[in-house]
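Sample pair:
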Amino acid sequence: MHYHLIGICGTAMASLAGMLQARGHKVTGSDQNVYPPMSTQLESLGIEVMTGYKPENLDIGADSIIVGNAISRGNPEIEEVLNRKLAYYSQAETVKNEFIRGRRSLVVAGTHGKTTTTSIAAWVLETAGFDPSFLVGGVVQNFGASFRVTDSEYFVIEGDEYDTAYFDKKPKFMHYLPEIAIVGNIEFDHADIYRDLTDIKFQFSRLMNLVPANGRLVVGTDSPVVREVLSEMEGKLFTDVHSFGLSEDARWQARDLDFSGAKTRFSVFRDGEHWSDFETGLIGEFNVRNCLSVIVAADAWGIGPETIQKAFATFKSVKRRAEIRGVERGVTVIDDFAHHPTAVGATLEALRQRYSGKRLIAVFEPRSWSSRLAVFQEPYVEAFSKADYVIVAGVYDTSTASKVGKVLDTGKLIEEVTAKGLPAFNLPDADSIVGHLAPEMREGDIVAVMSNGGFGGIHEKLLEVLRDER
C-alpha cells in the first residue's frame, strides 16, 4: 500500500513512517515545519517529505491517509482529504491495525516514566530472546532507534494518554490492545485537553478495563490516584491485577534500596516472600519503580530473574533521561526530559542521591502545555527546592498558551523559590542563561537542564563555554 502521512515530522508519526516502510509499504508525507532530528531520520530512510500543507500534495495517489494529532480542521490538506472523501486514519489506529492486532501487546502507561519503562521492557524481552517489535517515544540507546518491526508475536508500546486525532479524542493507549498493561502512576497533566484529574482517572480506568482475563494488569499503588481508580473499579476488573511499589501492601515490593554505589541496588519481594535481588545503572526511586513494573510484566511471560538482571546490567537508558551530555572543567551537563513538577522533583532528588555533596544547578524551560500554564505554579516551588541553584527560562510561546489558560508566572515562581533561601533567576532564553552561568559554574557542579524541547541547543552551548575557558 501507499501511505501518506500529514504531519509526518512529529515524533510518533515519523516512527510510524519508518515502521510502515519496514513492512514494505510506500510512504510519503507532508509537514509545515521540517526540522531535525525527525527530518534527517526520514531523509536517511529515503521517505519523501513535502514542505507545507497543500491540496495538491494529495495528487500523489495514496491508498490511505494518516493524520497526525497536531493537524486540525482548517489545515488545507485535511480539508482536501474530506472534500475528496479519501480514506483517513489516525497514527494510533494504524499502529493497532498494521502492527498490534493478533499479537501479544505490552502497553506501558502512566503520567511519568513511560518512555524509560517501555525501553527497559523492550530490552528485557530482547535479552530473553523474544525479538520484540516496539514503539517508544524516545531513542532507546540499546537499539539506537525509537521503533523496530520484527516477525515476533510480541509488541511493546508506550501508551500515551494524549488524544489521538482531531476526529478521535480518546487517548492513544485505547487503541493498543493490551495483553499486559502497566499503569505506573496517575497525576493531573495535559491541561490543554483534560478538564481535571477526574477526567484523567476515567481515561486510565478505560485502559485498565481493556486487559483480557488471560492477561495481567500491573499497577503502581505507590500512586494515591492509582489506588483511587482501583477502588472505584472494585468488582469491575476481569483480569489478574498485580500491584507493585515500595509500600508494604504492594503484591510486588521493592525493599532495601541502596543508592550509595555506582549502581542502584534493591530486593524484590512477591506476596511477602523474597523473590530476587537486582541492580541497575539507573538512578532514583522512580527508576526502581520503573524496573519493578517491568519485572512484574516479564514474569507474566515467563521471564525469570536471571534474564531480567542480565538485561538490567546491559541496559543503556534512553536519550534525554538523565543523559550526561558532557563533562568539561569538572562540570557535568545533564539533559533530562522532565517537565511535570513531580518529574522535575524526582529527577533532582535522584541526581542529589547520585552526586551527593556536589552543587546541583537546575535549569528549566516551561515548554510542555501543562508547564506553560499556571496549574502547577505552587508544585514547581517544592520541586525546585531540591536543587541548590535554580534558573527558569521564559515560558515558551506565551501567546498560544494564554489562549488555553492562565500562563505560569515565572517571576512569582522565582520569588517563592528565593524565599526558600535558594539563589534563583528568571532569564528569557538559552543564550542569556549560558551568559549568566559561564562565570558561575565551577568544578564539581552538576547542571541539570530540563525541557521537553530543544531549548535553543543550550547543552552544547554550556559545554562550549566551559571548553573555551580552559
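The chain has a mean pLDDT of 93.
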